[in-house]
Amino acid sequence: MKRNIENVLTDKKVESIRKYYKKNLLILELQLILYNNYNIYIRLDYFNKFKTYRLSWFDLDDLDINFIEKNMSIEYVSPETVDVIFKILDKRNTDQEVFYEEELADGKVILSLFNYGKVYTYKFYKYIPKKIAFLSDIFIIIFNNLPRKLQNFLFELHAELENDVTRYEYKKEFSFDLFNDDINKIFAFQIIDRGKKYYEENKVRFLEKIDDDRYFAVVEGTEKYLVVIKYDEKDKKMQVYCSCPCEFYCKHIYAVILAIRNNNFNRFYKINYRNPNLSIMERVLNFDYQLCMGIVEKNFEIINNDGDIELIPIFDSNGKCNWQVLEDDENMTLTRLLQDIIHNQ
Question: In terms of C-beta density within 10 A (0-12 exposed, 13-18 middle, 19 or more buried), how is residue 249 classed?
């Protein structure tokens, strides 16, 4: 319902801009709708009054339709640049609408071009499809005449043509049912077998749900990697992170999803820097603790606030241990090991 209301407001603002520009000759119109949560409207016109070409753009979310002129940004475009756009279109025979849909994408793009009475309209989600790759040159012309801060859109629009989609999809929130959807849809085929093997070999060492919407896990690969999965149960939205060097949905994330689905949890130890003003229960409830995986020599192995696995000394410069165990396993493994180290200090 909220998305429908947003669409109605966006359409209303676009129509208001069109009315404002009605005396000019429209050559090109581009809409980025809910593209990375932005609503951007761009148009290229020939201004009869000034006999110039102007590229205008609007952030529709901030636009007040009563003050369109205050909210517009304008760049002048040379006639030679416009001629290049027309030449690209002249090589195309079709004037039919083309629409491509990508299931997991979350931003719609609509490009309309007007040439000698013909209208060319192309709609697609998120990335320029390879089937209409010729549009690439037109997008480059548009964004090269816009402020630098908008050029990130250009790079992302070209991701499929550059075979670089995973760079933009990875770590972004996307629609996915963590417990029921087919996970093979979001992982490359070569990752699936490796992820299954990691899960079957019990390489997911720790896995625990923290807060109401985050799963923390440590996976043993060539080294230990932290995996965080943020999941909105109500809206079925997911976001993933892995500390490994890969910038795509990796085998560590795959293994953790399998572990979650099979309820193979193994809680972290919890340690805390001593705070005499709070009870243990208060510290746990306030998340005043570190997730810990154990002890390596005379260091706690923890997950720090930057999402990295780190070793921190048990003893301070005076040889004193100011840490305490808030949560241990049923065998009191960490507590016993810590006591032994303190005793032998």
Answer: buried
Question: Alpha helix (H) ranges present in the chain?
Answer: 2-20, 68-71, 79-90, 135-144, 151-157, 165-169, 189-200, 251-261, 280-285, 333-343
Q: Among residues 168, 200, 233, which one ends one of the domains?
A: 168
Residues 232, 323 share a domain: no
Looking at the structure, tell me whether residues 49 and 152 fall in a common domain: yes
Angle, helices 135-144 vs 79-90, to 10°: value is: 170
Helix axis angle, 251-261 to 189-200, nearest 10°: 50
Domain encompassing residue 306 = 269-343
Burial class (CB in 10 A: 0-12, 13-18, 19+), 312: middle
Q: Using H for helix, E for strand and C for coil, what is the string for 11-31?
A: HHHHHHHHHHCCCCEEEEEEE
80 and 133 Cβ atoms separated by less than 8 Å: no
163 and 304 inside one domain:
no
How many domains is the chain partitioned into structurally?
Answer: 3
Tens digit of pLDDT for each residue in 256-309? 999 999 999 999 999 988 765 666 555 555 556 789 999 999 999 999 877 789
Give this prediction's pTM: 0.56
Report the CATH number that the domain containing residue 162 is assigned in CATH. Answer: 3.30.1560
Torsion, Cα 272 270 178 36, to 10 degrees, reads 20
The number of beta carbons lying within 10 Å of the beta carbon of residue 186 is 21
The residue type found at 258 is L
| 328 CB-side CA count, 13 A | 12
Lowest mean pLDDT among 110-119, 223-232, 256-265, 325-334: 110-119
